[in-house]
Recover the amino acids of this structure.
């Protein structure tokens, strides 16, 4: 076979093999979990819950459905919007921390500013310290990312108790790690022309980074940050399940007191804010990366 | 302007004035900046609250009890004292956690839960990708159109155009609804309805991720080089034939890249969903805490979760590397 032919995108037989491998992996997982299709049909109690839950899908509650409403409780819609606002504020606060972490660590986790310099003239500091800092940052980012925000939250609940700042930091740590990883990759993959020109005219590594690499990677970085903001909204809502005043708490409380109409109200509010951000960030991505 | 002359300051100013700008982008950035900074004034994120005396006491207890319990002892006055570190004792204790799970509780072992976590994530991503491979064709504007890849000049009827627009819009709405709810919320709701161990976790991850993969796959399809497809159409190929022969082969590498990226996320999420009581590591992490604040065992299972996630990332990185080299 000619070398050109072997480099064709995914030969036909490999495609079949790949799809087969996916199915085999799925079958192994189902076997490992001892799953059967029969388990998908809910039992009697489950059927009752499922029925009464989905019956309310098109008629979400507009007022509280609880039999006893304590004095001073705001109306349901106000309650839901308050929780949505808290969800948004928690997400925004954690994203602002995550962005700082991401930019700071992303700089040290990128190779573009110190490695593979084709123009030459690297200092001894650049040869010895920079790779060490790079490696340490990579490990740190990996550890931050490998613990889920909910686990961080559970850990902080154990260590500090229920404080809003702990929730914000719980989201900010894994998100900061993810942003740092993606930022560093975007910086390293940005067009190098401007950076090389700056280097050739004698700029320092920091100047090359700040004026040559960062501006080229910035649109992609902004677009990705917007997408992560949308994810942060979901994470912040989920932390409500652990007692924070976000939408998750309202969903859990209404569900456990079987006020399914209220659950749908909160779900629709959550869907609405996430979809608004989804559409917004989608449009912005299209503008920024065009 | 000659190519070699340095640009004058007015030329630079002109270039600056003529840079591409978008009001939409600027307003968006302004709003988000306001939100990011404003959140710190609106929210009650005070440091003093987090580091009050009672909380530091809490933190102190937490830190003293993170050490495995065979390696510390409680003194008569109730405080903890560390025994000297012994790798043998630590290995025995770790082995018990891997085989028995949380001590004095009827839980699955650590290894079994780790396997369960991986299995949940694998089945979820396989189901999600199969579903997304069905949805994506109806969400891609170039395939789901009245005259796909027809040569210019062919104008379909208004009724046809509208019918296809409804198909694309409806599919995209379904996908955005699927991904708008977090996996944890979906699993919480499904658990009450199905009342089995693993299906709620698998289905929650599959529903959320098929929403994401469906949209990504649709984008891949829309970005496939259209020229060969137009040629196929001119030769008389049907929509289905173009999709199977022209598009599917070209989209496979990118599909696999996204598949493995999302799988990494699934492993993370599958760990957490156990907190709801499903057969993954989150169950053990939660159980260690609720059954008497066994912080040492909690940290052990969190560490095991980190190992699983890193293993997933490693497999994914290798797989994506193979895909990149093959394409």
């Amino acid at each position: 076979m000619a070398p050109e032919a072997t480099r064709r995108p995914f030969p036909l037989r490999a495609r079949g093999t790949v799809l087969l491998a996916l199915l085999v992996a799925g079958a192994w997982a189902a076997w490992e979990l001892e799953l059967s299709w029969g388990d998908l049909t809910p039992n009697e109690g489950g059927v009752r819950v499922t029925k009464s839950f989905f019956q309310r899908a098109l008629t979400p509650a507009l007022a509280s459905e609880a039999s006893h409403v304590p004095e001073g409780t705001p109306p349901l819609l106000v309650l839901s919007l308050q929780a949505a606002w808290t969800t948004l504020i928690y997400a925004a606060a954690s994203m602002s921390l995550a962005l700082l972490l991401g930019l700071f660590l992303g700089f040290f986790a990128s190779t573009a500013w110190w490695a593979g310099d084709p123009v030459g003239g690297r200092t001894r500091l650049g040869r010895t310290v920079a790779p060490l800092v790079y490696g340490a940052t990579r490990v740190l980012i990996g550890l931050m990312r490998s613990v889920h925000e909910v686990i961080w939250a559970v850990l902080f609940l154990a260590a500090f108790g229920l404080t809003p700042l702990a929730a914000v930091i719980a989201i900010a740590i894994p998100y900061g790690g993810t942003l740092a990883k993606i930022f560093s990759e975007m910086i390293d993959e940005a067009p190098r022309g401007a950076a090389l020109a700056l280097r050739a005219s004698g700029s320092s590594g920091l100047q090359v980074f700040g004026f040559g690499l960062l501006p080229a990677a910035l649109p992609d970085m902004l677009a990705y940050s917007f997408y992560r903001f949308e994810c942060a909204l979901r994470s912040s809502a989920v932390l409500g399940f652990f007692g924070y005043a976000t939408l998750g708490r309202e969903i859990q409380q209404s569900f456990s007191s079987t006020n399914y109409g209220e659950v749908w109200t909160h779900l629709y509010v959550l869907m609405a804010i996430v979809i608004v951000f989804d559409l917004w960030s989608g449009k912005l991505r299209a503008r920024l990366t065009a | 302007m000659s190519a070699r002359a340095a640009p004058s300051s007015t030329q630079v100013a002109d270039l600056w004035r003529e840079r591409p700008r978008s009001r939409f982008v600027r307003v968006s950035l302004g709003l988000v900046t306001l939100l990011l900074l404003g959140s710190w004034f609106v929210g009650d994120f005070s440091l003093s609250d987090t580091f009050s005396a009672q909380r530091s006491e809490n933190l102190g207890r937490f830190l003293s009890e993170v050490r495995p319990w065979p390696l510390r002892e409680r003194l008569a006055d109730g405080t903890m004292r560390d025994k000297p570190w012994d790798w043998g004792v630590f290995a025995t204790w770790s082995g018990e956690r891997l085989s028995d799970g949380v001590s004095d509780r009827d839980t699955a072992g650590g290894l079994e839960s780790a396997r369960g976590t991986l299995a949940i994530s694998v089945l979820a991503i396989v189901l999600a990708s199969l579903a997304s491979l069905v949805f994506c064709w109806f969400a891609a504007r170039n395939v789901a159109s009245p005259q796909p890849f027809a040569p210019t000049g062919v104008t379909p009827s208004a009724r046809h155009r509208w019918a296809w627009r409804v198909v694309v819009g409806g599919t995209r709405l379904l996908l955005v609804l699927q991904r708008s709810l977090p996996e944890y919320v979906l699993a919480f709701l499904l658990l009450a309805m199905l009342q089995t161990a693993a299906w709620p976790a698998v289905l929650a991850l599959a529903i959320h991720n098929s929403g994401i993969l469906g949209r990504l796959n649709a984008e891949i399809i829309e970005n496939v080089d259209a020229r060969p497809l137009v040629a196929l159409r001119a030769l008389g190929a049907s929509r289905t034939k173009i999709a199977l022969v022209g598009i599917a082969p070209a989209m496979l590498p990118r599909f696999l890249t996204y598949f493995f990226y999302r799988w990494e996320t699934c492993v993370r999420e599958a760990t957490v969903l156990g907190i709801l009581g499903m057969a993954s590591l989150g169950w053990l992490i939660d159980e260690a805490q609720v059954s008497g604040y066994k912080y040492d065992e909690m940290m052990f299972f969190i560490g095991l979760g980190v190992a699983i996630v890193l293993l997933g990332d490693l497999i994914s990185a290798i797989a994506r590397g193979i895909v990149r080299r093959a394409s």
Q: What stands out?
A: Chain A is about 75% helix and 0% strand. The first helix of chain A runs from residue 3 to 6. Confidence is low (pLDDT under 50) at residues 1-6 of chain A.
